[in-house]
Design brief:
Length: 183
């Protein structure tokens, strides 16, 4: 056992006496010190108003990000799609049971949390549109915003209205397409 201890001491002695050992040790110590967190200075005075401090924190871009791991920083703000649900990009393939334009609109809206306004709150042209058969070309919609998909299903003749408070959508026939009914 005594021989093994002497052999290990000789190995350590060889490593310590090596000329690169001091260089590596110095680099290791310097890089360890380089990763210290910066020290924030104390507030200048107690007369800083709470609302000024709060607005400074909100506007500071570093406060609106979160560090994940050692090298990744992500924004701590909602994405565009989370802030405006109708701007989310969708790719939809309508299942076989979807047969009408109204069914397709309900199917599109289902995961968004929005719903179609009541039929009696919309004009007769809209009710007629919703009961039309779904065109085959509209069975697959993709890589467009939810709002554009809803407009595509309705055709260029209709305007889309949104109620973000109640999360409702409704359609209205554009004035250029309205026909006067003869008596």
């Amino acid at each position: 056992m005594h021989c093994h201890t002497n052999a290990r001491l000789k190995q350590v002695s060889v490593i310590v006496d090596h000329p690169l050992f001091l260089v590596l040790l110095t680099l290791l110590l310097l890089t360890g010190c380089a990763h210290q967190l910066p020290i924030k200075p104390p507030p200048e005075s107690d007369s800083v108003h709470a609302d000024q401090t709060e607005s400074a924190l909100i506007s500071d871009p570093l406060e609106q990000s979160v560090q994940f791991g050692r090298y990744s920083v992500r924004s701590a703000t909602p994405t565009t799609a989370q802030g405006n649900i109708l701007s989310v990009i969708v790719t939809i393939r309508m299942p076989a049971p979807i047969q009408t334009v109204g069914d397709a609109i309900h199917h599109l809206l289902n995961p968004s949390g929005y719903s179609l306004a009541r039929f009696d709150a919309q004009g007769p042209e809209v009710i007629q549109l919703l009961n039309l058969p779904l065109p085959d070309v509209h069975r697959t919609l993709g890589s467009m915003s939810l709002q554009d998909a809803l407009l595509t299903l309705a055709s260029p003749a209709f305007r889309l209205y949104t109620d973000p408070v109640h999360r409702l959508i409704a359609y209205d026939l554009k004035p250029d397409y309205q026909r006067e009914l003869a008596p």
